Amino acid sequence: MIVCFDLETTGLDKYNDKIIEVAMIKFDENTFEIIDTYSSFVYPEREIPDIISNITNIFDSDVLGAPKIQDLSQDILDFIGDSILLGHNVNFDIDFFLNNGIDVSKNNKIDTFFLANFLNFTQSSLNLEMLCNYYNIEFIGAHRAINDVKATVDLFKAQLKDFGKLKKDKKRIIYYLFSLSSDSNVKILQNLLFSEFGEKIDLDVFEKILLKNISKSEYVDEFISDENLNCEDIVKFFNFSSEVEKRENQLNMTKQVFSGFNSNKKMLIEAPTGLGKSFAYLIPSIVYSVKNNKKIYISTKTKTLQDQLFMKDLDFLSKNMDIRFTYTKLKGRKNYISLKGFFDYIFLGSFNYSEVSFLIKISFWLLETKYGELDELTFYPDEYSYIRDLNSDGFNSLQEKNQYRDYEFLLKSRKSVEKANIVIINHSLLFTDLVSESKLLPDLNTLVIDEAHNIEDSITESLRESYNLKQLKEYFDKCEKIFNFKNIKKIDFLRTKETLLSNLEIIDDYAFSYINKKLPVDNQYKNLLATDDFFSDLDFSQILSKINLDLLDIVDKLKVISEYDFTKEIVFFDSLAKNIIDFFDKTNSKYFIKMISLNDRFGVSFEYTLLNPGNYLYSNLWGKLDSCLLTSATLSIGNTFDYIKNIIKLDNFDFYTFDSDFDYKKQATLFIPTDLGSVKNNGDEIVIFLKEFYSLVRGKALTLLTSFSVIKKIYTYCNIELKKEGINIYAQSIGGSKNKILSNFTKSPENSILLGTDSFWEGVDIPGDDLKYLIIHKFPFNVPNDPIFMARSSFFKDSFSEYAIPKAIIKLKQGFGRLIRTKNDTGLVVLLDDRINSKWGEIFYQAFPSDINIKKGTKKQFLDILKKKY
Q: What does the alpha-carbon distance between residue 65 and residue 58 come to, in Å, rounded to a whole number?
């Protein structure tokens, strides 16, 4: 017998939030015949937060007079009995039961999420609603317990059918990995899915199943070179198809890029949206590479653009240009799975519940992937520590002694780079390779950087180093697991481990106290700049010396063990020793920003990154290149490049800009309400205005915000009433992941409103008439107490005018760019930040096209115009 159950709660905190609804269905696991049902509201002894009522449609009036959970506990336990528990992300609900005195810890469980993680691994989201859509399961009233339960039962039924359709090799993979776990919940599933399985599956069989689907072939055959290529007229290479519109400024940029390469120039080009800049640098790059026998690297920040260049643009050009060339892509080591790491992991066996699901997902993916890039998959919180053991960073994946070497995706990618004319990389690899001893980009001479407005942030993140005790303990746990499996003597190792952890915990405790002394208890951002007083209040010298010696001792002990290859662990402990020394070294503070942070997942973390990325780039990249192009649609402020030139030190660059082909006077209007009051202090009136606005336009609207708290406020106030009008609000962090809410919005934009923060300001492309209204709540300033922002602000006499405002204008330009993407697009921008009327605020008009229509008026005047239109 199986009992499927679901709870609705006042929040996600199992210790402090309360249950407000319980629903259960008991059914036969063979026939799916429903035996009994149970449903009840629960009185939570507190008010239900508005945001929860918005999501669940459960209000205080619904639960008033309902029994308390302790009054229902025996009925719930009697209903469940010794049945198997079924749910979607079932541990969440079980934990709430346990913390309310309902002990179901002895009941076995089946999690539909566990099954979906590998059966539906190609789906971008595995929430219940998305999976029901995938399986065409009717799903009415999401986030009401009884409806969620019915949907989960139907989902489980569909998953069992899906399992029955799997090919034999996939069933072999599942059976083998199930057999490597002693978890009773895995065994329950094994018995349910495999009533009998006559075939013996071992590691050799498992290995052969996977390797037969992985090619040893490289992705590129040869580098194409033709010194006799006639390229005096670079524009002629555009004559490949009538499908692609040729634009005058696109051709002008193409000529400029090609001329710059031939003259060994370093260039920065601002290319506005709609110019077609991808082709404007790809075509001259291809021609220059073939003519001059030189490889060209093209770097992007986002995976979206990298995929567009590789899968769409270069694919098109390779089929349509009257010139042969080869191209490939390369990412950092951490982006590739290591087959050596994967099979070593499998060899150790004894997997927990979530590991089994994760490993089946990886195995299924290995049957299909061509490039072995881990970002092809979606991972969930429990899985990040597993991924660290499987990626190619720190492994000897490329060494001859690796028995899987010829299959390794990193090796095939690296060999392909050697033979390709054009190599697509990302900013992270570009900048980490600068400090890497083992270069993946040894012949970096000619470089194009797209999305160049992100260079400062990208190098900051790429060269950011950190350590925390949780990660260290995970590595120790893995080492001990290997010691036990291989019967390796570990007494000396454990002794050193304990003294090391003891000393590190002293520093952790000091940092914990320091953070809590400096910040209020309810502070949203638990991260601090580690200033001089942090290092001077306690003498770390003796304890750091002991820590360093212990880490070196651990490395020495691992190096002499012959029974297992501890390369990855040795690299980690070596790196940890370096990071700790660098963090606490007082003499390098003029080069690094040092930070301490505190969060629930990792506890205390110690981090550092470059203080002055411009100086570093000037010394380590710009000066070593023959030629370089930086490009983006948002590089200038007003008519100058002074800001970007100063921030990333572009002293030897030539600067160019091209006009937009868009007629913004006809295509866009900027409206600024004059009577909404202060955006900082008059939040309620702004939210009321937004509800009226959404009600009138009904959809096709994106609202860009700078904080989740404001998203929550807008959603709470608007959602229920707008839903009655048939209008959906999809809000980041409330409605799911970025991909999920974008997907929901694009399915029915005509009656959908999108609320997004940071990641929605750029890289979001909603085509054509699907987006007609862009609402900008506030200027996107950096959080003023962000440690990196604070440290770099110290370089400026007037950091607000010289650093904070320019950064915000660049981001605002990116935000505006979400609205008008083609010559045929039209739209309305509503700016709610009244600070544009201040003396310093006027500069923010430079974030918008100079020819855009600007209208000001009262909210009534504005809404009346909209009413007449609709």
A: 14
Do 518 and 562 reside in the same domain of the chain? yes
Task: Supply the range of the domain harboring residue 530.
Answer: 489-612
CATH number of the CATH domain containing 827: 3.40.50.300
The residue behind tokens 């690899």 is 429
Give every strand in the sheet of 527-529, ordered side by side: 465-468, 603-610, 592-599, 527-529
Mind listing the pLDDT tens digit for each residue in 190-248? 999 987 776 788 999 999 999 999 998 889 989 999 988 888 888 888 876 556 666 88
Q: Provide the token pair at 687.
A: 């939210």
Indicate whether 196 and 83 sit together in one domain: no
Same domain, 752 and 787: yes
Asked if 861 and 800 sit in the same domain, the reply is yes
Q: What are the C-alpha distances in Å from 736 to residues 32, 55, 228, 730?
A: 30, 12, 55, 8
Q: Which helix (H) or strand (E) holds 465?
A: strand 465-468
DSSP letters for 811-855: HHHHHHTTT--STT--EEEEE--GGGGSTTGGGGGGGS-TTSEEE
Instruction: For residue 297, tell me if it sits in a domain.
Output: no
The DSSP code for 651 is T
The CA-CA-CA angle for residues 350, 352, 358, to 5°, reads 105
Which pTM does this prediction carry? 0.92
Cα–Cα distance, 433 to 441 (Å, whole number): 7
Q: Say how many domains are in the chain.
A: 4
Q: Is the pLDDT of residue 454 over 90?
A: yes
Query: For 358-410, how does the pLDDT look when each residue is reduced to its tens digit (9 = 90+)?
Result: 999 999 999 999 999 999 999 988 898 899 889 888 667 777 888 999 999 99
Residues 737 and 836 in one domain: yes
Contact assessment for residue 543 and residue 507, using Cβ atoms and an 8 Å cutoff: yes
Q: Which residue has the tokens 């299909």?
A: 368
Residues 731 and 804 in one domain: yes
In a domain, 289, yes or no: no
If asked whether residues 547 and 534 sit together in one domain, one would say yes
CATH no. for residue 537? 1.10.275
DSSP-assigned letters across all residues of 734-757: TS--HHHHHHHHHHSGGGEEEEE-
Q: Quick check: is 270 in a domain?
A: no
> Rounded CA gap, 348 and 801, in Å?
57
Domain match, 154 and 175 both: no
The crossing angle, in degrees rounded to 10, of helices 683-697 and 859-869 is: 10
Around Cβ 843, how many Cβ atoms within 10 Å?
17
What is the C-alpha to C-alpha distance for residues 235 and 158, in angstroms, rounded to an integer?
A: 55
Pick from 60, 56, 57, 58: nearest CA to 46:
60
**Per the domain annotation, does 682 fall within a domain?**
yes
Dist. CA 406–CA 29, nearest whole Å: 46
